[in-house]
Amino acid sequence: VDAPVLSDAGTPLEVLHRVFGYSGFRGDQAAIIDQLVAGGDAVVLMPTGGGKSLTYQIPSLIRRGTGVVISPLIALMQDQVDALRAVGVRAEFLNSTQSIDERRQVERDFLAGSLDLLYVAPEGLTTPRVQELLKQGEIALFAIDEAHCVSQWGHDFRPDYLWLSNLAELWPSVPRIALTATATEATHRELTERLALQNAKHFVASFDRPNIQYRIVPKDEVRQQLVAFIREQQAASVDAAGVPVPAAGIVYALSRATVEKTAEFLVSKGIDAMPYHAGLEASVRARTQSRFLREDGVVIVATIAFGMGIDKPDVRFVAHVDLPKSVEGYYQETGRAGRDGAPSVAWLAYGLADVVQQRQLIDKSPGDRAFKQRMGQHLDAMLALCETVSCRRVNLLSYFGQEYLGSTAASAAAAQEPTGLLPPAAPACGNCDTCLAPPETFDGTVPAQKLLSTVVRLKRERNQQFGAGHLIDILMGKVTPRVSQHGHDRLATWGIGNELNQAQWRGVVRQLLATGLLAVSDDGYGTLVITDASTAVLRGERRVELRRDVHESAGRATARTP
Ligand code: ADP
Ligand code: ZN
Question: What ligand has the least distance to the C-alpha of 17?
């Protein structure tokens, strides 16, 4: 007779009440737990804050043996284990930060069957020592966290995840659950296949985060813009009882240098900001993180190293001063705002230089052609989100293959509306910048032609290529040293672009780059070249619709209602 599969912990609901002290399950939690308790596999796509952890923690307590959680976030294992121990769950982790003695103790506890949960890093699992250990103990389930990391097409591929395809063969009777807070349909399919989860049940929650207001603004003086944004957030911040509280936030930048400089600047403006990046000493980082978690109103300026899995529910804003490399990254980072459900803002300042810089980074990256193509596609999707003139939320959700179905409040109101009288409302969220202040568009065909023909003439007549700044100087009829030196004031297009100012021209170049009507050359200097698609514009066969940038100083919607 086989040993019983279940422990005597009780039903999922009893465990939820007794161990975690919550009154009921949310969303798909109960269904996911039932699936695992019954021995089945599950694939779970649920946004940050949705409550993924309980979906494997509770089945680990209910099934006999130890639940093995595979997580790439070594830095957070200690916190997760501490939180579980605080409610009486027997949890441990195995990773490279431990001493031999600590590891041996955990191994003994596991073999003795006295652990409910064991967290391991994916690179640990690929070692024979850990594999041997797991074979000798009793395993309740495998939980694969951040499962999108197995996808080569995703934005966060980790080679160690590939080994996880072996779990199905090595432990055919142990249920497995893969979880992620970010997955396009392609990534969803790929992770299902690579993790051999063909027989799994799929639980796909809505990725909408209705309390996050999305704002993407043209970059002028980015640090000044950031200060203005943070001050506005801090002035608006109140707690549930309406009492003002200093707002905590995260500012993301791509480089350590920008992180340091931005943090210094914020401090000089009286904002309680601290830098965070991998180059800082561990003790400094730990102190920064703990101030952020424990005190009100701390602003962290960080590279993307910060935030993975940090469970601070009341982050009121996430700001990006550099363009994220992918929509997945943007969604994941902005998702750290407002886990408590209260109104929060995701703010991104983005400009021409970002587009040029990112295209160059891709060109210079050591990857092969397929890799660069993939990065290019990620960037294109991010640019499309930045340049859209319709609802950001609709765009974001459609990237993840989801349709925006309206806020719960809106759909409840719609349900009471007599049907057939009104046309269905346009799908728009009412809580993003383009919904709150619909951007104007204008026919940009003529400016686009002027710019493109300048690029073409320089190439054809003089075999020269230039960056955006010089091209704009030519169009605006400026006499700079460089214009004089090259005799560019004799070009037919010199001085024909005075209908737009410098900022507007930069907006035109940015949008042409974003839509592939102009490209950054691979010469390493950020010079611009035309593309196959440019020809139709030059011939007058294609109209170019452009978004009129609204610069923040000119006053814009700052409403913050959810
Ligand atoms: P995720 O991993 O999906 O980002 P977590 O598992 O960290 O989300 O859960 C987010 C927060 O919601 C945590 O503070 C968690 O304790 C809480 N939570 C999860 N499920 C429930 C529930 N059923 N009732 C109350 N709180 C819950
Ligand atoms: Zn919207």
Answer: 1
